[in-house]
Amino acid sequence: MQTRLVLLLLALAPVVLAKKFKEEEKPAWAKKDIRDYSEADLERLLDQWEEDEEPLEDDELPEHLRPQPKLDLSNLDSKSPEDLLKVSKKGRTLMTFVSVTGNPTREESDTITKLWQTSLWNNHIQAERYMVDDNRAIFLFKDGTQAWDAKDFLIEQERCKGVTIENKEYPGVNAKKDEL
């Protein structure tokens, strides 16, 4: 009998203890219709929502809020600025522009760059590809250091006119001099 009474009290406790604001106890901004909320009201609501949240782990933060990785300059060759740039882009998103030789149609360029993207993926270099022109594509790398490995592969391809990383042009091996 006692256990039933205790269970009944425990079951009713959340109902009795749950507090619902009366209309006159709410702050002025909370009485508004949600469609009438201003930016400040929405910001206040977001702050309340995130009040008891634990901070995100570094790898879960958006890229612009992540702490910069520590650079180990002791292993780098000071005569190679490319190596320094490569190390500084570790863990950062990086875009490269890749051009196809000749005067290809958009479909032809799409097929060629898709093949290059597949080859990169098969070599564990993750790149997203976006066509920006009939003979030009953007390859987006989530880890910027992979862009230089991809560049080494891409400039060796028969139809690669050139690769641009950080405003530096790397001509394709098979590109004709008059096309550059």
Automatic annotation (TrEMBL):
Region described as Disordered: spans on this chain: 48-73
Annotated localization: Endoplasmic reticulum
One example of a Gene Ontology biological process annotation: protein folding
Major location (coarse): endoplasmic reticulum
UniProt keyword terms in alphabetical order: Chaperone, Endoplasmic reticulum, Signal, Wnt signaling pathway
Pfam families for the chain: Mesd
Any single GO CC term annotated in Swiss-Prot or TrEMBL for this entry: endoplasmic reticulum
Annotated signal sequence range: 1-18
Cited InterPro entries: MESD
Entry's family note: Belongs to the MESD family.
Cited PANTHER family: LRP CHAPERONE MESD, MESODERM DEVELOPMENT CANDIDATE 2
Name of the featured protein: LDLR chaperone boca
